[in-house]
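From the shared-data thread, chain only:
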Amino acid sequence: MLCTFADILISTAAQYQTDIPRQFLPTISLQADFLAGAPLGSWVQGQAEILRVTRNLVFSQGLIQADGQVVMRASGVFKRGPLLPEAAGDQALRLPGMPARP
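Structure, as tokens:
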């Protein structure tokens, strides 16, 4: 579960932290270091950082916490795939500081 969460966290962060268009980002590589267990029922959250965006790839890393304790460190490489169509609910996902989309 933590690896799936990390995969989604560090790939999706590119949509919120960069000005790349909304596109499919399949995983090329995902590394995970388990630092502690995440007890059943704990609140799991993460923070991601985009390290580099190239014409074809996105490099990112992140930390995942369970109830405030770091439980995993992850990094990944993602292929920049086809553009995804805008959906009606996308405007509701705009977060403070998120790059503006045309």
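The mean pLDDT is 88.
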